[in-house]
Automatic annotation (TrEMBL):
GO biological process: positive regulation of transcription initiation by RNA polymerase II
Database matches in Pfam families: PC4
Signal peptide segment: none
Positions of the Transcriptional coactivator p15 (PC4) C-terminal domain: 44-94
Protein name: Transcriptional coactivator p15 (PC4) C-terminal domain-containing protein
GO MF terms held by the record: DNA binding; transcription coactivator activity
Feature: compositional bias, Basic and acidic residues: 1-21
Span list, region Disordered: 1-33
Length: 108
């Protein structure tokens, strides 16, 4: 299986995709948001190949953390990742502080 390189730099991303990157959404005050909106989904880029997507599925809002791959200039999701319901997302957010504490303990 081909190893994917992390291409998180914007300049490198533009070289790869010929500047076809979706523009960030702007709020009412003209401030650029850190997400894009495409095909009824909101996307946050963690890296070029790792994204968070917020979408609707069968009437339910879902949050997906997933790896993507490039196929003919289009970014498509892989099976590698997880999708959370809103209930699971709320539960996950409750643990963020403790997760950060554990990370900091392991850094030492």
């Amino acid at each position: 299986m081909k190893q994917m390189r992390d291409r998180s730099s914007s300049e490198e991303y533009d070289k790869i995709f010929d500047g076809k990157k979706q523009s960030p959404v702007q709020d009412k005050k003209g401030k650029k948001q850190s997400y894009t909106f495409e095909d009824g989904q909101y996307f946050f880029d963690l890296t070029t190949y790792k994204k968070i997507a917020i979408s609707k599925f069968k009437g339910n809002t879902m949050i997906s953390l997933r790896e993507y791959f490039d196929k003919d200039g289009q970014m498509l999701p892989t099976k590698k990742g997880i999708t959370l319901s809103l209930d699971n997302w709320e539960k996950f957010k409750q643990y963020i502080g403790e997760i950060d504490e554990c990370i900091n303990k392991l850094k030492k």
